[in-house]
């Protein structure tokens, strides 16, 4: 229907990483193009690159999807995360707000829907937390505009083994010698970091995580 979203647009800031993923850089082909070619080969069930068309119509892609068993194995679109509660499992999701390869908006919509099904955000956050990283791309492919050195595995370990749910992760920017230049909190979604008046903007302790996004309560 007119006005409906077919697919979200690329996020502001993602153009910074587009040389790596979409156009190629430093004499190397674009990583996203190579990944797309591999996925098309799997969908077409044909590993010969020469036999694949350079461009695909929407109808051709839909036909491949209908005949393929891959979506059943790879899709992760079901927002019912009740299995995490039953198994007492923790799920920590993180994604860059400037990811040019996997558009960030769908994961926030997914998380909001998961919160609705879980009975509210607080219930969902007992077992599943989402962290949206400002200025970060897809996988540390190049230094981000904001501090982006963070350790999600450590936070998950503390959550599982110590029972400490992460309200935020600390992201740092390091110099060539490994010294810290700046740090920021990556808040548990939908909270965002807000600088406290008069505080040092280069230290994560100067920020508060404020919940002002439209996730289900």
Can you describe this structure in just a few lines?
The protein is an alpha+beta fold. 32% of the residues lie in helices and 17% in strands. The chain folds into two domains: 14-74, no CATH class; 82-211, no CATH class.
Polypeptide structure, described:
- The chain folds into two domains: 14-74, no CATH class; 82-211, no CATH class.
- 32% of the residues lie in helices and 17% in strands.
- The strands form three sheets. It has a two-stranded parallel sheet with strand order 1-2. Strands 3-4 form a two-stranded antiparallel sheet.
- It has helices spanning 18-23, 31-44, 58-67, 70-74, 82-86, 105-118, 121-125, 152-162; strands at residues 91-96, 128-133, 168-174, 180-187, 191-195, 207-211.
- The chain contains eight helices and six strands, in the order H-H-H-H-H-E-H-H-E-H-E-E-E-E.
- The chain is an alpha+beta fold and 217 residues long.
- Strand 3 (168-174) and strand 4 form a beta hairpin.
How far apart lie the N and C ends? Answer: 30 Å
Q: What percentage of the residues does DSSP assign to strands (E)?
A: 15-25%
Strand numbers in spatial order across the main sheet: 1-2
Q: How many individual helices?
A: 8
Number of domains: 2
Overall helicity: 25-40%
What would the keywords be for this entry?
217 residues; 2 domains; two-stranded parallel sheet; two-stranded antiparallel sheet; alpha+beta; globular
SSE topology:
Blueprint: H1 18-23, H2 31-44, H3 58-67, H4 70-74, H5 82-86, E1 91-96, H6 105-118, H7 121-125, E2 128-133, H8 152-162, E3 168-174, E4 180-187, E5 191-195, E6 207-211
Parallel strand pairs: 1-2
Antiparallel strand pairs: 3-4, 5-6
